[in-house]
Amino acid sequence: MRLLGKTMLTEPCQAEQRQVVIIGPGAMGCLYAALLNRSRSVDVSLLDYHPQRAAQIQQQGVVVEAAEETYTVPVYCSADPGDFLVADLLIVFTKAYDTEAAIRRATPLVGSDTGVLTLQNGLGNYQILQQHVPKEQVLAGTTASGATLLGPGHIRQAGVAEIVLGSPVGNTELAHEVAEILQSASQTVKINDDVDAVLWRKALINCAINPLTALTRRRNGELLEITALRELMAQVAREVYAVASAAGINLGRYSPVEAVEQVCRATATNQSSMLQDILAGRQTEIEYLNGAVAEIAGQYDTAAPLCECLAALVQGINC
Ligand code: KPL
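That is the input. Now the predicted structure with ketopantoate docked in place:
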């Protein structure tokens, strides 16, 4: 498989290389475009919706400021889905509120063997993908990697962590195939068959940390230093855990408060993605995090008053 535009603009890719297309050149999309392309074992491109930004990234590549070095990785980037042929793997990294539009635009890249993997934040993303792509082709997962967007195609890498993925409908064969593609590009990947539990554990972390950092404009680690915020964060974590249980999600032997505090320590100097969104004047993913949890709570005759309150407050910031 070959990218039409790419074969014209750069060296022809080796026929046996798997084609990975990342949708969304935000911080995480750019990070993984750079990491995977740098391995040289897969051929990675970016699909954007913004022609000017795509042209800039195509011209300059993805610039990564990592702890020890700053490096640039050439990455083919286009805003025209017609520039791409069918992909082996599509990774959706758009903001959760763009999932529907993104997968609609990417339809020409999806063949009968294409795996479509969401590694986005939030709840409800894979269900949207399943409305546009056969359910057996959709995978979902999480990564604890972090990056900050400094400009178009320009990021600061915070840390690279493992990817956990699985098939919501039990297509373990595809999960293994996709894990193998990512592993061949030097990524650590675990397969977990209970993908809903994986997504809820990540959502719990994001629901507890992200709105508090966005509202107070503090870095993740500061939430541990201020007693009132630390206590509120713990209460939100417990609330999300209770809603997950009510919804039949088995989070296993797991302490929500310890999990959240551990992530705060591990990402102490990070600005959460929601704080980055607020500072950049962008829409946040609050409706797919605390907003979604409050809505799901209602479906199971329970309540999530803290999530509801935080969702309203964050929605009020940039209006
Ligand atoms: O995923 C994150 C985010 O910012 O969205 C955390 C884990 C909170 C790290 O900043």
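The chain has two domains: 18-193, 196-318.
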